[in-house]
Amino acid sequence: MPTYDVDIPFGRWATQEQRAACVSDVVGRISGMAIASRLSPQGATGFTVDDIQEFPNDGLRYELIDGMLIVNPPPTKLHQLALTRLYALLIAGAPPGIEVFPAPTAWRPDADENWYEPDLIVTPTPTPEVLATPGVNYFDVPPMLVVEILSPSTRTYDVTAKYSAYDRGGAAAYWIVDPAVGAPTVDVFERTESGGSLTSVGHAEGEERLEISVPWPVTVVPADLVR
Length: 227
What we know:
six-stranded mixed sheet
């Protein structure tokens, strides 16, 4: 998947309007591709969560990984089929006090330079006060599970940069679902030791049954997610 590094000729002192206009220009010129945008001069930290909050609600997914802006187009129908199947499977078995949120639901693991929008995120049920807090449209605690469903525009980041980001952010488990027609797969990563890194604990293809215990016992058959 091609990725574009775009040098933007201003640093952190740029106004919100300048940054938003620049992103709109980049998206317009490289439509439908994943975009990695970095600010110049060299050493500037790049985009922030404040920038994300200013971007338009235009159907694109905007995420930050260490200040690098990732922009992706709306997902494919196959992606959405797998998403709805997996959401239904998880929500059916979720114990009391646990919620499953589909995208777009954001996870903000730190103050400024990281903003993730997994396809699914599992967290303890938020309190009514948290749900009612104006302007707080994200979770800031490590989730029990994050799930990414691969698309042509997200595949590289989901299996590399986002894997590392979710590991550093403290996610307890990470599932990667590839809904490829004829060869769907599910890969499961968990923290097998307290304070350890996400480690591969399971893989299934096609009609294989994958028994998963985190965040609660569930059986996943990859082929069931795309039919």
